[in-house]
Amino acid sequence: MNISFENPDKINGLMTLTFEKEDYQPAVDKQLKDYRKKANVPGFRPGQVPMGMIKRQFGTSVKMDVVNKLLGEKLYEYVRENKIQMLGEPLPSDKQKMIDPEKDETMEFVFDIAVAPEFKAEMTADDTVDYYNIEVDDALVEKQVDMFCSRTGHHEKVEAYDPAQRDLLKGDLRELDAEGNVKENGITVEGAVMMPEYIKVEEQKNLFNGAKLGDIITFNPRKAYPDNDSEVSSLLKIDKEKVAEMTSDFTYQVNEVSRFVKAEVNQELFDQVFGKDEVKDEAAFRQKIAEGIKEQLAVETDYKFLLDTRAYIENKVGELQFPDALLKRIMQNNNKDKDEKFVEDNYEASIKELKWHLIKEQLVAANEIKVDDKDIKNVAIESARAQFAQYGMTNVPDEYLDKYADDMLKERKNIDSLVDRAIDVKLIAALKGIVKLNEKTMSLDDFNKMMQEK
């Protein structure tokens, strides 16, 4: 067996693997003997089928199976031992000669191999990267308090509808005929729930202003929601396809008016948000909210730091030469259901991500970053905690978070992203300890505006 590798321009490699008969024949003979032991051929007892018959029937396919397996093993073994940073999969070269598996004993395989460009990515104390601290001010805390009060509030019954309060109405709908009388066999919906505040047409919306229990309002659902067939369909309990032909007026008799009342800032709210007796007064409640906001925002500012570090070091590394023609072939091979336009449209973005991937690999190696199961589990737990926090659930028990994280880890599709996140967490911490941080303080609104612009 002989393996040679040519790489004159450093990024386009040509690997040639030559197998002689003695390289693969022992494995072929062994597999054919196994076939003979198991072969079930009429007229022969098990294990007694002539080897000549076995070779004629299975010889060529077994030979190619053995050679293909050997080919893969030796190719990747050579790449690994010679530390070739291969991009994507090797592709058969146009220099490949035809092989007759039945006749040829010596087989030569030629592959094109895309090789990563050589460069050095390094961050030192001489490098300066912006780091944003988001100011947790009273207004931000107040907004969070209001959110908790809203999420733990309740509805209470009132006598009259007030549009400023976004009250909820419950009543009976009845379809009218052209003369304004209740239509015989018309649509009737009992206990229909409405929030007039969301009616788009002011003329129709205003009909409900000041409505009291027992009042009967005449309105036109189609005119009230001219651009929302789904709303009309849901309100009248009819198929969406029938909305277009629905032009009737309806009466709505108000049977109930409910008003949403926010929770009070008291011990009951403290316990609901942070757990029984974790917080004893409003000052401590606001302080704990501020601390929670700061922790959540630290994730955002660290993410921004990683983005800025990426832009900084990509600029520092400069332009890199890639084997474009070969990488486009690989991309096309990996997306066989797509046409050439897909490759052309997406190649530039793919190369941008590839450059960052190669840079990140060097940074991870230079800082000896490794992640284990515990690191990945911690990231899953923090991800679960963040998801619950979005819904105002800040006192989720640790055992529940632990179970939620375990469920995430059971899904194979989640593993790669969790591993990447675990690596990012450690990389961010390492880089923050190396580079000079140009710290800046700004409001959350300004930070969000900056991120949207990016």
TrEMBL record:
Keywords: Isomerase. Its EC number is 5.2.1.8. GO terms for molecular function: peptidyl-prolyl cis-trans isomerase activity. Residues 1-146 form the Trigger factor ribosome-binding bacterial domain. It is an enzyme of class 5 (isomerase). SUPFAM superfamilies: Triger factor/SurA peptide-binding domain-like (SSF109998), Trigger factor ribosome-binding domain (SSF102735). Pfam families: Trigger_N (PF05697). This is Trigger factor. The gene is tig.
